[in-house]
Model the fold of this input.
Amino acid sequence: MAKSPCTHGQAPCFDQNYHLDRGDVEGSAGLTRRVRGVAQKENAVSKRWKEPAHILGVGCTRFGNLLETPELAGLGLQELAAMAAKEALADAGMGPQDVDAVFVGNVTMQTSQMPATYSQLANWLGTRFKAGVHFDAACSTTNVGATMAAMGVASGAYDRVLVVGLESTQSQPDGLSPYARTTIPTEEMWLWTDQCVNKAYSVPQGYDIFPTYNAFVAQGYCRKYGVSLEDLDRGLFELCRTRRLHGAMNPKAIRQQTLEDEAKAMGFDDPWAFWTSRYNPHVAWPSRLYSVVTPADGASAMVIGRGDEAVAGASAPVELKGFGVSVMDLPWYDDDPTVMPIDKESFSKAYTMAGIQPGDIDYLHTHDCSHIMSICSAEASGFLPEGQGLAYAREGRLRFDGDRPMSTHGGRHAFGHAWAASAGSDTYEAVKQIRGQAGPRQMPKAPKTAVIHTHGYAMISTVLVLQGGN
Amino acid sequence: MADSTVKKYYDGLAQGKLLGKKCNKCGGVTFPPTTACNECGSYEQDWTELSGRGRLLFLSHGIAPPPNPRFNDLAPYGYGHVKLEEGVYVQAIITGVDISPDALRKHFEAGPSPVIPDILDVEGLPVLAFKAG
Ligand SMILES: [Zn+2]
Done:
């Protein structure tokens, strides 16, 4: 590979990835060549933590509906946030006054009607006088928060930071009431959520997440790998069964019924007949309703710190070894909808920083608002071989007890998706798996290395690499 | 008053023109137009008009009611991933197509097909859609 500077930008350029991506430079396909790239190695030296950062504690509410779900019904967003924070602080063996700063994320301001959460939550979290900020990276929010908190810790500016994400996608304040909430229609939720998407051109001209993030990706996958539409449907059916199985084993999931049980309840002995029935319509052909997100209300929290002090009663710290973040606007792909360049970037950056290879990964979560996209991201991560993800799903290999376990909390469809809180729920699950605390869905051998990938609208690809002690 | 890039784009659409930017540094075409080249990030760009000819790579449909109430009367509509002959990608409403599963399957099996702009007036806003061409 050439090392001489080029002039694809204004300044002399050593960025081989730019040219590899464009096919200017010969190289074997895939992520590993990027990790081996000269430029990556040079960058890696300057992109290590100066001091290690650890996740000391994690918390997460049940994901559900503030108007209906027993554990949540009647709560306000302040209490929801406090519930997650209390669990995270207890997990870390500390109290709210032990943190130096609070970073709070929330995306859909129309449903929270609560900017300035740093002060509005201070008396609910018990964090008066601490530093604070309100921030947003859409569905990557809590994990981007973890990276910012870790930067605060690794720099020496903070010893411990509390990161909180909270979201309601199901309801909004009822008029001017300080506590009553009222449900919102699905299309209104999407209108507000799509305010994260290109507002100059895409949204005004008919943008719709279902074809963009589901149907084109599914069609592209079939065309690229020669997968038949029937095998696509079967593969996504089996993937849904796996995620629903995980949800059925998770008391915090919004959907706790297996797909088989739901089919029976609807009068179908054969779950495949239920899958292909009118109860599971195409949201955007060939993608079906049960291959996509289940919007939810919820909150998650984590405590990030140095991890070098023994705290009585605390759970084992999990190291945040590295991260990668990469952003782009629509369209998110070129000829090949199965590959988002931002994913290649974020995985590559995270692996380099953490000093890992794809073969080191024991547990993976990829953003699964769209099940087919989550398979593409898992293949981009190197955890699943290209073009084989759906076959792996059919063979049950993505289950908690399989050899490529993914999204054991149930993912966005079964665990649910509360925009700003969800990335924290993914990290929560990974931390529990690493510590061997995942209950009935615990992987037979607790993972040492876990990778968490999220897509925040529209679009911020975020990857965390977590490692347990041994 | 300063010129709005976004307004100029929509004014162009209303006249049947697809206006983008061409980079003075790398020659890259940015469409729809912004203040920076989508290839290299340079701010040094000039306006350019695109031909509008392209290929429809993938075709599906959106949901109904649609996420944006502007399209209440059109939804559910065909929606496609289009590559324009200048090398840029656009996702847009596709008109004049049957969006039943059987028809979409036939379209998928037939593969990419040529399209040309079909600029719609939707609640007073010109909207870039495409049709078979
Ligand atoms: Zn340029």
About this structure: The first strand of chain A starts at residue 54 and ends at 60. The interface with chain B takes residues 8-10, 187, 190-191, 193-194, 200-212, 215-216, 219-220, 222-223, 229, 282-287, 330-331, 333-335, 337 of chain A (CB under 8 Å). Residues 1-46 of chain A have pLDDT under 50 and may be disordered. Residues 54-187+295-309 of chain A form a domain with the Peroxisomal Thiolase; Chain A, domain 1 fold (CATH 3.40.47.10).
